[in-house]
Amino acid sequence: MAFRNWRESVIYQLYPQSFKDGNGDGWGDLQGILDQVDYLIELGTDMIWLGPIYDSPLVDNGYDIRDYQRIHPRYGTMDDFQQLLKRLHENDIRLIMDLVINHTSDEHTWFQESRSSKDNPYREYYIWRSPGTDGGEPNNWRSFLGESAWTYDEQTGEYYLHLFDRKQPDLNWEHPPLREELYKMIRWWLDQGIDGFRLDAINMISKHPDLPDAPEDAAHPLGQQFYKNGPRIHEFLHELHEQTFAHYDHIVTLGEAPSVTMEEVLKYTLPERGEMDMVLAMDMMRIGKDPKHPWRSRDWSINELKESVLKWHEGVHGRGAYAVYLSTHDHPRMLPDIIGAGDHYDQAAKLVATFLHTIPGIPLIYQGEELGLPNTIYSSIDDYRDAGTLGYYEHAVADGESETEVLEHIHKRSRDGARAPIPWNCALPQAGFSEVEPWIPVTPEEQLHGRCVNDQMTHPDSVLYYYRQLIQLRRMNPIVIYGSLTMLLPQHEQIMAYVREWEEERWLVMLNFADEDVSIDWSAEQIDDTQQMIKLHGNYPKFSRPTNREDEHDLSELKELRPYEALIYRMQSVSL
Ligand code: GLC
């Protein structure tokens, strides 16, 4: 194994139940992934983040773990897992697993013990409180799903805390024996030979000891300021690191840490602090979302994207580390927010890809993005599976909102939009994902427009090929990884343009986020426009439309970009 320096990696998020069904039960599994390892190798990714495959009642698709050290039979066996790990390692690809240690399933034996009596040794593994003075919940915190974050347990007459579903009770990190057990389990996985973890909801593990009420008008979910980046978080993460990761080579950790300042990110990721390697830069995911209503959309502009790029670059780049991404299993794909289903769809998919691979940060590709997949829209609520989506539907409709409107919000915002099975072959039933009906329906053909793997494999101008080229481009050019960034045309509402610089090298990236030709005026920019530019990459086929532009020309000749055009140039000499 000769792993690439993780800072130079491109991560691929694999959502196992929707990737490939290998045993014909309609559920993606480890054998299915094994069947498609060549696809991952050809793509060029060198780190796979594998979603949870542990034993679980699957209330939250595996983020509710019943037994950390067992693989759910739906995904396969430990032997399948070892085969997969071996194949990936033979190809120098790291495998990092999802580690969910903010909470477990309520079916975990620890919780079963914990709820059985107040003096059970496992009682302290979870966060129990007696009813508030009015006999109700101990405080006004709400879960991410919108309901109270507390559930009353008849057996002992107390409430337990759950920041997510009631079937996902939060672990009590204040209790040292719990931490010890977690570290033991983590070491066990590391001993299996895996290469690290994506740490789920990790900045929520330290709760304010008094669990105070939140102001009623605070942002959703109420209470978050008392557990995100909580009082003992850095102490806990350092201890976790020292007790586990620090004793193994090549381990990479990627933390899910919403609502962080750049100072916090540095604390989490500065190598000398020994906490974790990188965090997921989540704020781009807020774009297009109404902060008060997680189910509503709002208008947005590319200047917000520019701000986010600059904020992370200026605050963290070159010191701490972060992964950048445009969708995950939790965030519907951003592409549809950028484009409708217009003629230039593939151009837009490639534009978004160019953006992701040329800004500072480690790119994370969520499965299917490399195919330019849309968010799947299911016409009936019956086709949705995500508990959060179904809960929202039920409540909103019960509160008198029109079903059509509620469904419209769901079409845009449901996590299920990006959880449809990967379409391997459009000519086969179930798009080649499975031989039987999958756990969630495949994307209807009129939404897929033939964007299946088999077709894209044979078309050098497909979105898939384009992703492969970008990944290679990163591999060959350290400037993309280590270079600084200067934003040009900062106020332009359709174009994003930035210069990357590293040692003697300078690149200009130009991105037109509009579905029309857009002209550029360089006169207000502090840039010498007589310099020679050499085109390295672009998202329009070379001879698709006559332009007066050659592959080498002066910057001043770059006066217009075509709809969703993306261009990468090397600048011969630059004075900014
Ligand atoms: C994370 C996961 C999400 C899950 C939640 C609770 O945010 O990404 O899918 O629902 O944690 O584990």
What integer is the average pLDDT? 94
Q: Please name the CATH architecture of the largest domain.
A: Alpha-Beta Barrel
Given helix and strand content, the structural type is alpha/beta
Q: How do the strands of the widest beta sheet line up side by side?
A: 1-2-5-9-10-11-12-13
Straight-line distance between termini:
42 Å
* Tally of helical segments: 16
Whole-number total of structural domains: 3
CATH topology of the largest domain: TIM Barrel
Low-confidence stretches: none
What share of the residues does DSSP label as strand, in percent? Answer: 15-25%
Bound molecules: alpha-D-glucopyranose
Description:
This protein has 576 residues and is of the alpha/beta class. It folds into 3 domains: 6-103 and 176-468, Alpha-Beta Barrel (TIM Barrel), CATH 3.20.20.80; 109-161, Oligo-1,6-glucosidase, Domain 2 (Oligo-1,6-glucosidase, domain 2); 483-571, Sandwich (Immunoglobulin-like), CATH 2.60.40.1180. The chain is 26% helix and 16% strand. It is built from 16 helices and 21 strands. The chain has helices spanning 30-35, 37-43, 78-90, 109-116, 176-191, 233-243, 262-269, 302-315, 335-338, 345-358, 387-398, 403-413, 445-448, 453-457, 463-476, 478-482, and strands at residues 11-14, 47-50, 54-55, 67-71, 94-99, 128-129, 150-153, 158-161, 196-199, 252-255, 278-280, 322-325, 362-366, 484-488, 495-502, 505-512, 518-519, 532-538, 552-554, 560-561, 566-571. The strands form 5 sheets. The chain has an 8-stranded parallel β-barrel with strand order 1-2-5-9-10-11-12-13. β14 and β15 form a beta hairpin. α10 (345-358) packs parallel to α15 (463-476) and α11 (387-398) packs antiparallel against α12. The longest helix is centred in the first third of the chain and has 16 residues, at 176-191. It starts with 10 loop residues before the first strand and ends in a 5-residue tail after the last strand. The model has no long low-confidence stretch (mean pLDDT 94). Alpha-D-glucopyranose is lined by residues 60, 63, 100, 164, 200-201, 256, 329-330.
